[in-house]
Specification:
Elements: H1 13-23, E1 31-40, E2 48-60, E3 63-68, E4 71-81, E5 84-93, E6 113-122, E7 127-136, E8 143-156, E9 159-170, H2 172-179, H3 183-188, E10 201-214, E11 219-230, H4 232-235, E12 244-255
Antiparallel strand pairs: 1-2, 1-12, 2-3, 3-4, 4-5, 5-6, 6-7, 7-8, 8-9, 9-10, 10-11, 11-12
């Protein structure tokens, strides 16, 4: 299956981002696995589909491989102070095929592309608060800033439940790439979309819960359900059919 298939499940990012914190305080924090997500074709679409989701988390010294934007990314991190860390990363970002949904037919494809960025994270007790900026390496695709909070709400025996919330701010290029409609695209649109030029601003917010169940010291299951709500100019885009999308995923990981 082509990697571009992962573009159909942007909401599955919530699964892999939540998965690592859910397992991070276990004795064996490195893991690899596979999940299945049920997600919208793109944020704001009324069409849903299932897709495979890779799950990987690896750390050795300052080096790490961990999911970002739905795909594994690698980078370096350092501890700034007790409970504080910061780092840089490079990876790949999802795209969108114009034929994936009726509403996008006739528009330009958004290519699978490289990305790079930096993050800072504060982890006091059960909380994890983080900010990360991600810049597309593809010219004109723009960048996004994510603010995220997770809370280890409950743990008993082999069970652990995390609650999470995040919001994403997108610059003008990113908003235009995903939610804008140029004059030429409007002319080609099979849905008769009108032209639309969104401005930079907060794009969306996510709320989710992740349940991790440890089968034995090596194997665990991860289940995530959540909701994404579009904000601002993304909410008002002619590409947006639903302002709120549900998503869910389940996966199995092997710790080593």
């Amino acid at each position: 299956m082509k990697l571009i298939m992962l573009a159909r499940g942007a909401a599955a990012v919530a699964l892999v981002c939540a998965a690592a914190p859910a397992h991070a305080d276990q004795p064996r924090t490195n893991f690899i696995g596979l999940g299945v997500g049920y997600v919208p074709v793109y944020e704001g679409s009324s069409e849903y589909r299932s897709l495979p989701v890779p799950l990987i988390n690896y750390r050795s010294g300052s080096f790490f491989i961990t999911p970002r934007a739905g795909l594994p990314a690698m980078g370096l991190q350092t501890h700034l102070a007790p409970d504080w860390k910061a780092g840089v990363f490079v990876g790949m970002s999802l795209g969108r095929d114009s034929n994936d949904a009726d509403r996008t037919k006739g528009l330009d494809d958004i290519d699978f592309h490289g990305a790079y960025g930096a993050f800072v994270e504060w982890t006091p007790s059960r909380w994890s608060l983080a900010a990360a900026y991600r810049q597309a390496a593809h010219s004109g695709y723009g960048g996004t800033l994510e603010l995220r909070a997770t809370y280890a709400a409950w743990q008993s025996g082999s069970h652990r439940v995390n609650l999470g919330a995040s919001t994403q701010w997108a610059n003008g290029d990113a908003m235009q790439t995903w939610y804008g409609v140029t004059a030429s695209q409007a002319a080609r649109s099979r849905e008769g979309l009108s032209t639309y030029s969104p401005s930079s601003g907060f794009k969306s917010t996510d709320l989710y819960v992740t349940w991790a169940y440890r089968i034995n010291p090596s194997w665990s299951t991860l289940t995530t359900v959540g909701v994404t709500t579009l904000l601002g100019d993304a909410r008002d885009s002619p590409l947006t059919e639903r302002r709120t999308n549900m998503f869910g995923s389940v996966g199995v990981v092997y710790a080593f």
